[in-house]
Amino acid sequence: MKKLLSIISFLAVSVGTFAQGAHDFKINEVFVFGCPKCCKAVADSGYVSGDMFKGCQKKPSFYLDEYGEPASWIEIENVSYTTHNIRNCFIATDKAVLNKELSAPEREQLMSIIPAGDPRTQISGKQRITFFVGNRNRGTLHTTDAVQLKAGEENWIAIYDGNAVDLLDSITIPALKPGQTYARLSCGEWQVCEASEATPNGPNQEYYNDKIREFKEKDPHGVAMTLMCMAVVFSCLAVLFLFFQGFGLIIAKMVNKVAEPVVKPVVHAGERVVEAAKQGTTETKGIPMETYTAVIGLALHEYFGGTHDIESGILTINQSQHSSWADKSHELRQIPLHHIAE
Amino acid sequence: MLLESISTMDFVATKFSDFLTYTGFANVEWPNLAMIAVGAIFIWLAIKKDFEPLLLIPIGLGIILGNIPFKAAGLEIGLYEDNSVLNIFYQGVRQGWYPPLVFLGIGAMTDFGALIANPKLMLIGAAAQFGIFGAYMIALAMGFEPNQAAGIAIIGGADGPTAIFLSSKLSPNLMGAIAVCAYSYMALVPVLQPMVMKLLTTKEQRKIKMKPGRQVSQTEKMLFPIVGLLITTFIVPSGLPLLGMLFFGNLLKESTKTTRLAKTAGSALNDIVVMLLGLTVGCSTQASEFLTLDTIKIFALGAFAFIIATASGVCFVHIMNLFLPKGNKINPLIGNAGVSAVPMAARISNQEGLKADPHNFLLMHAMGPNVAGVIGSAVAAGVLLGFLS
């Protein structure tokens, strides 16, 4: 039974940990490369030309892949404060995966797996990873052709757990103009950003500690902080005080109740031993043998000079040369340690 | 042949003069010497005056070690140089994992029996934390940012590990000065506290005899770390690293089933961590980083914090006595022990009590607020961390 419980507990903990880690991945920013006209040019020519954005009002600049070429990209953030690995998770843009009738292999065909074996898929807490869409042959940070983002149209993007079934996060992005990105803000809302505001691999908003600034503005003298903190410290220790005050009273009552029935029979038994000893009989007369032996032993001890009726009244205390941290006397126990060792 | 030997001599001379540029003599500046003198004073205080030698000797030697001048030539020897041995040791301070380990040891060594026997003494431990927030207000008035002020103010908790833990999170640039200041004042508790205690008490009050505490059962002692952990961390989860380790260490001690672990946590492990902590904290006081106006301000604030903490503990006992029946009054001399300098502060209570009445032993009574102060300062650090990080 114990083994079974241990296994169940272990499994429960393991499953919980896995799910928690995967669910910390959130789509953070999406960039759809080009505009309808440009995308057509890319599709026709197969490469990015310098004249591609000739017709566009403003030529945007792009985040380039390892080959120095621009592409659509999807940024995923680990929103937790713990490092998680995103390997073996899936990225999908085909809504067909929402069909629950599909088997796992069928679903995997519609998605792009994030390969294992690359240390870059290990994402520290509050950090991000960016995947370029397409060109899987260029490395881990590129998706397969199963993932496609269409410029000038609404796109749906999802991340799936390693089993290709559990949806971790999804977002529908509106049709974007060339160079625009769709980014999640710290409040959880999404916003269309211009090219100059795109932040691949970086936070979508500058981080600054609001709390410190707020305290500086609203509590310049520290009075509010003092009141709040002292209230919390007092509350903690007051609750502990109340608990142990109450608990102590209960314990004290229990001790008093228990003490009476234990002490009285022993005293009575001792008196009966003395009575029996005076009669010169060797029978214990129902008195527990250890009580009988203890009383006789104590009497003999006192008879042979073990009495302490008169004490000198002088107590000698030697000043320790050590501090309390190093003093050997602080290691003294009721039962000396070498006795335990023996 | 002659030309060859001249060339060799030239080579030797060049190399030797190059070597000389690496020596401490070639690189020494007066701030280094000043800090080495400070380190030597710490060691002298520890050995000659018996001021907390277990703290001051590692810190004192650390100060000397950290201020040995050398040429910055990428030799990976200095505390602030990546990959140096000292830098690796220093990570325990910088990342804040020495303090919870020290708290583990404190928990394994602390007997909360005195506190459980007289739980109302916990409130004194809470009141003394006002030293932290009094210093916080003064630090703000002196122009420090709220996070820096909090890091400095925690010195008032009289708890070195807590001060290091909080300052490493809130104001890492001031951590060296804060840590040295906290430990210095902890060692100077016998100098700072008695004058405040005498000032705030009358001779009659110092003679108050307190009733001995009741017998505390092992069940209560076992229950204390569990209940304490649950209550304090549910209210202040940000204090989890310190409080968790403190109560864990105490449970190891009181469970009676893990004596070996408690013994290790309270002796060997604690000694190792204290050695490394003291040494690296001392090393972190390199003159270039340490000898600044901010350091002087921090030391001044630290003294204020200790004085306020002591005074608030003693004054709170006076307030408590207003509500307690005549035969059940608390000796205000144990108010100073509300700071968490264990067991120094409790010892001061006892010494001052004996000065007033040679038959009045306050040590065990003072241990109550003293260990409550440990919990209180850890809670206060957790609250500050929660508000400001």
List the helices and strands and how they pair.
The complex is a heterodimer of chains A (342) and B (389).
Chain A: H1 2-22, E1 25-31, H2 36-45, E2 73-78, E3 84-85, E4 90-92, H3 104-109, E5 111-113, E6 122-123, E7 128-132, E8 155-160, E9 167-173, E10 181-184, E11 190-193, H4 210-218, H5 223-279, H6 289-303, H7 337-341
Antiparallel strand pairs in A: 1-2, 1-10, 2-7, 3-6, 4-5, 4-8, 8-9, 10-11
Helix pairs in contact in A: 5-6
Chain B: H1 2-22, H2 24-27, H3 30-48, H4 53-66, H5 85-94, H6 98-109, H7 113-117, H8 122-127, H9 130-141, H10 146-153, H11 160-170, H12 175-187, H13 189-199, H14 203-206, H15 218-235, H16 240-254, H17 259-266, H18 268-283, H19 287-290, H20 293-323, H21 344-356, H22 363-388
List the main descriptive attributes of the protein structure presented here:
heterodimer; A: 342 residues; alpha+beta; four-stranded antiparallel β-sheet; 11 strands; B: 389 residues; mainly alpha; elongated
Give a description of the structure:
The complex is a heterodimer of chains A (342) and B (389). Chain A has 342 residues and is α+β, with helices and mostly antiparallel strands. Chain A folds into two domains: 24-207, no CATH class; 212-305. Helix content of chain A is 36%, strand content 14%. Chain A has a five-stranded antiparallel β-sheet, with no helix packed on it. The longest helix of chain A is centred in the last third of the chain and has 57 residues, at 223-279. The radius of gyration of chain A is 39 Å and the shape is elongated. The relative contact order of chain A is 0.09. With 389 residues, chain B is an all-alpha fold. Chain B has two domains: 1-71, no CATH class; 80-388, no CATH class. In chain B, helix 11 packs parallel to helix 22. Chain B is elongated, with a radius of gyration of 24 Å. The relative contact order of chain B is 0.18. The interface between A and B is large, with 38 and 54 residues.
